[in-house]
Structures are given as structure tokens and as C-alpha cells.
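Side project, low priority. Logging it here so it doesn't get lost.
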Amino acid sequence: MAANVSESITLRTYPFGESDLVVSFLTRDKGKLRGVAKRARKPKSPFGAGLERLCCSRMTYYQRENRELVTLSGCEIVNSPFSLAGDYASTLTLDFMAEVAECLLPPASADDRFYRLILSVTSHLESRAEGAIWRSLSYFAFWAVKLSGFLPDLRVSEDSIALAREMAAYPVEAIRLRPWEKGTNADLRRFLIHEIEVHAEKRLLTAPLVEALP
């Protein structure tokens, strides 16, 4: 059986057995997949830090017909957000992104735009630019609901509607036209999170923590 190698973003992992992990990961060519990583919890794991949340790597896996779970055999890190590990607000933003992607993305349905969205917002967070946290949170939430196809008419303030139009017109790194303090886009962000929660049919674990950020 031939091995598949795909550039992938790790979304979430779950303990499985004594030493294995079930991994949910987003591939660039085949969409979201789930697989078993054998011995991933062992000290000498063949995966290293490649299964950390939102780590981008070249994932090697085997896929058999009529089986929901693939078998992961290894990964090579391409890029990882490890530089943000010491900042609570940044790591919480990454947690929010991973949870939203896990909830909204259907299995085995390639979406290069969502893939590039995660990479772009993660890169912007790593820049540590002024206002990067709230810019990243609102930008990601806006495009998550837009790309998932359920963004209704915006029933928020005129300022937030203008902000949404600006986000749709420019990449995240180019949005510099207005201050990005927490209060500037709070109603837009809450509206987008509400839409995500409604369509995910459960409350997001990280949403209250995000709103509690200073």
C-alpha cells in the first residue's frame, strides 16, 4: 500500500490506548482527515512536535478503502507557532482557531482557502504587530463563517459592517485603516462567534475565554 504525503495542519489530538493518539488534521489536497498515530505518546515518537496544535507539517499516512481512520507513520515540520507558546492571549487565539476549524470543516473535503486562512492568520500572530490578537480573532472568525457558507446579513453596528467589508477586501496583514482595540469590533466578533456556535450545534469552549481577554 502506497504512502500518502500531504502538507497538513494539526487541529486536535485525542489519547488512544496506552501510547497512541487519534489525530484530526487538515490536509491541503484532501481536506480534514482523522488517523491513528502509533506510539505518538512515547518519548521517542516518530512524530516529534509535529502533532502540536496548528503545527504545519508534511504528514505521511496510509489510507485503506472503507476505513474512516488513516494510519499515520510520521511527519516533517514545515512551520510551527512555537514562538507564541509563552504568550497566553496568542495561544488562546490558536486554540480558538483550531476548535472552530475542527467544528466547521467537513471530513475529506479539500478547501485550500480555509487552509491558507489558518496559515495567514497564524503568520500574522507571529509578527506580534500592534493589535494582532483582536485583528486575528475577528478576521479568522469572519472568514470562517464566510467560507463555510452561512454568513447572513450583518445585524451589527455600522462600524462593524464597515470593518467586515474591509476584512473581505484586504488580507489580514494589510488591514491598518482603523484602530484594533477590543472594543472596536466586539459586537462583530460576538455575532460571528454566535453564528459559528449555532451551526456547530454546541458552544465553543474557547469563546468565553477569548471574550475575557484583557
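Brief comment: The longest strand covers residues 4-16.
Revisit when time allows.
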